[in-house]
Amino acid sequence: MKKKLLLILCAVLLFCTMPVFAAADHAHIYDETDLISSQNENICESICRTIEDEHGYCVVFCLVPDTAGLVNVGQYCADVYANRVSAKNAVVCAYDLLNDTYGYYLAGTAQKKFTAQTMDTLFQLYTSSLVPTNGVTAFVSELKRLLDTDFAAPAVESEPQENNFYFVIDRADVLTTAQETALNAELSALSDEKNADFVVLTVSSLEGKSSLDFADDYFDYNGYGRGEDRSGMLLLFKTGADGDRDIALSTSGALYDCVTDKDSDDLLDSIIPWLMTEEYEEAFSLFVRFAEEEADEIGKIKTLPWTYVPICLLIGFAVSFIILKIQTASHKSVRKERDAQYYVRRDALVLTASRDRFLYRNVKKIPKQTQSSSSSGTSGRVSSSGARHGGTSKKF
Predict the structure, then answer these.
(1) Which of 71, 123, 175, 196 is the most exposed place for a label (fewest CB within 10 A)?
(2) pTM, whole model, 2 decimals?
(3) pLDDT value at residue 333
(4) Distance between CA atoms of 48 and 38, rounded to whole angstroms?
(5) Do residues 264 and 390 both lie within one domain?
(6) Residue range(s) defining the domain that contains residue 188
(7) Do 281 and 180 share a structural domain?
(8) How far is CA 346 from the centre of its chain?
(9) Is residue 177 domain-shared with residue 265, that is, in the same domain?
């Protein structure tokens, strides 16, 4: 009887504590500055949970004294998403009080729904408030209102955002809306079919980074890549004057193994002439065809099949046997003898004197080969997020 009562009591305690653990593990407001009151934090938590229940977006707002030495607030938000958020669709925001800057990270379909202009508008509501508590409340409340009204009648009217495509990010505005739509649909279908993300990104500035670093970071911090190895490929084009334009290809996951440096260089060389004449649609169509061909090679080894090994050995053995038989056939006049003395003709060779004489020396010096990246392989690199990428870049 006592054992049954004890088991019942433990079950009741476990049931009562489950909501507490769930709430602590799935918090939406992270206030590391202790500036938000508990009452207002609970209000914001309630609004965020409603957004998640009704619209499927996990909204997280972080108020931090500083971003702990990270490159920017956006990277801080990406780390928060990776370590604290398990939802596929999420809007992670952070405000850095020390540097008076803000950033965000969009995951899943949030990248299509929330434009940069929308996020700027939301943060304007936060910064315009006199106290952080009111700012966070205004931020999440307006975000919920936008979702409830399907982004109708935004709080601040302004010019349309230049682009909110998922597989085509035309920041440099080199494509028409129709071209973006067609290219995005093509890349989206290809990505779904091959289970790898294929992305085209155009920019007018690399923000102080190299083209490869910019491409790698954009791929990593914007949630691209499918599967455990985050397979995908991103083509970056930076506009500019002659000699100041950049193009780069970043590969990840299974595409890292498929695309060699020579493959990447050949693609970029074929695209550059089209970019120089500003025929962007044709240039990016080459990338689509290249992506489709390389995706078909995923899982295949670019070498001869293993069945060729025994075949090559048999052919080599047969050729060697035939050559050996031909050479030995000319020595039929030599009969086998038991003793070696019968092979020497008596008095045929008489030595009267012997001495050693040094004639000359011939020395050849061959420099030691240093290890370099082979054109038939991939010279990988590690991005700032710790992910491994392949691909090359060119300036033109």
Answers:
(1) 71
(2) 0.47
(3) 58
(4) 15
(5) yes
(6) 168-300+380-395
(7) yes
(8) 81
(9) yes
Rounded to the nearest angstrom, the gap between the alpha carbon of residue 323 and the centroid of all alpha carbons in its chain is 54
| Cα–Cα dist 321/317, whole Å | 6
Q: What is the 3-state secondary structure (H, E, C) of the chain?
A: CHHHHHHHHHHHHHHHHHHHHHHHHCCCEEECCCCCCHHHHHHHHHHHHHHHHHHCCEEEEEEECCCCCCCCHHHHHHHHHHHHCCCCCEEEEEEECCCCEEEEEEECCHHHHCCHHHHHHHHHHHHHCCCHHHHHHHHHHHHHHHHHCCCCCCCCCCCCCCCCCCCEEECCCCCCHHHHHHHHHHHHHHHHHHCCEEEEEEECCCCCCCHHHHHHHHHHHCCCCECCCCEEEEEEEECCCCCCCEEEEEEECHHHHHCCHHHHHHHHHHHHHHHHCCCHHHHHHHHHHHHHHHHCCCCCCCCCCCCHHHHHHHHHHHHHHHHHHHHHHCCCCCCCCCCHHHHCCCCCCCCCCCCCCCCCCCCCCCCCCCCCCCCCCCCCEECCCCCEEECCEEEC
Pick from 395, 383, 372, 369: which is nearest to 261 by CA? 372
CB neighbour list of residue 279: distance below 8 Å, 6 or more residues apart: none
Burial of 280 (0-12, 13-18, 19+ CB in 10 A): buried
What is the predicted pLDDT for the residue at 365?
A: 72
Q: Is residue 71 part of a domain?
A: yes
* Cα–Cα distance, 90 to 108 (Å, whole number): 7
Find where tokens 């019968």 sit: 342
What is the rounded distance in angstroms from the CA atom of residue 110 to the CA atom of residue 56?
A: 10
Measured between alpha carbons, how far is 202 from 186 in angstroms, rounded to an integer?
17
Q: What are phi and psi of 39, to 5 degrees?
A: -65, -45
Beta pairing partners, 236? 201, 248
Let me know whether 172 and 296 are in one domain: yes
Asked if residue 18 belongs to a domain, the reply is no
* Mean pLDDT per 10-residue interval, the chain, length 396 residues: 51 43 57 78 88 91 73 80 86 84 86 83 77 76 86 45 64 88 89 89 89 89 83 91 91 86 90 91 90 75 58 83 76 64 67 73 65 53 82 90
Place of tokens 């702990």: 68
Q: Is the dihedral of CA 216, 221, 225, 230 positive or negative?
A: positive
Contact (Cβ atoms closer than 8 angstroms) between residue 122 and residue 95: no
Shared-domain flag, residues 177 and 142:
no
